[in-house]
Fold this sequence. Notes:
This protein has helices spanning 6-10, 15-28, 32-39, 43-49, 71-84, 87-94, 108-120. Helix 5 (71-84) crosses helix 6. It is built from seven helices and no strands. It is mainly α. Helices cover 57% and strands 0% of the residues. It has two domains: 13-63; 71-120.
Amino acid sequence: MSNQNPKSSAHKVSEALKVQARELRINERLSFGEIAKRLGISKSTVRRSCEGIELDEPINRRPTTRSAYTDDEIKLIQECVEKAGSWRKAHQLLNGRVRTQNGNPIEITQIKRIIERAKTL
């Protein structure tokens, strides 16, 4: 009987897939997530396979097509942040008024991200 864990050997990624992951990272400058989707392996496996590869240019990411929030929701978020004076108070003011696409209440980190993006526009 082998001392090796049967689960670990069942989930081993072939060396060929690891080489493909490295080639996609170097030649096409794809993100770890995009490589993982294309090859059908986990993002952490891609990251480990590409360890030591330094890219001197930005990677190619899929462009974001739209905001997850409507213009009215973004305006409401901005107004709440200005009125409240802090992220936490703004979060409390927004509680239940703005929800994510999957129906969950908006989080403080999402509020910060929306405000930062609005500043760059």
